[in-house]
Every structure is written in structure tokens, then in C-alpha cells.
Amino acid sequence: MASYPPGTYEIVVRETGNLTQGIKSAGQVIRILGKVEVDDRGWGEWSGEVEDLEVWQVVGHALSVDQVAGVVARSAGVWENVKKVCACSGRTIGEELQVMAKQESVL
To answer: pLDDT, tens digit, for every residue of 58-67?
Structure first.
């Protein structure tokens, strides 16, 4: 956390990931992950493992610290979600980069 009032804050998982009205719409706290201590400069950080909790259990839920919240999202692993650049060529982003690199070296 940066530029936050000094103090100790709980890091919590909320019922939903609905942040349309901030943490009010994210529901009740379902799990406390830990605490973060924010110093006089407004800086605080936390990292660690939480016993009996897997990442997949919080995907789609809001994590909040005081009145600040974000939603945990899953990203595909490397090459698990290959995007096509152009339907006409059918090339993936990686393939397109290789083609463009060859073309650039010719110029």
C-alpha cells in the first residue's frame, strides 16, 4: 500500500467480487488473510501464505484493506490462451511477432 494513513489494517476476502458500490456491494468478510502495518510514510506491504487457502478459492472475490478493494482474477498460463492477431492470417501473437521481425530486418 502506498500513500495510506498510518495504522494496522486487516486484509480480508469478501463474499463477492461486485465492486459497483465499493466494498458495500462486495458483501461480508468471509476470511481474514492477515494484517498490514502502514508506516508514517504511508507505506505498507504484506506477503505470505495462508493456511488452508488455495488461490482458486478466492478467484472472483474482492480482497479489501480498509475501504480499498480489488477483485482476484485468474490469468491463463503461458500459451494456455493463445490469441489470434488476424482472422485472415490465423497467426498467433507470437507468430506475428516473428513475421514482423523478419520483415523489419529486410527493410
So the answer is: 999 999 999 8
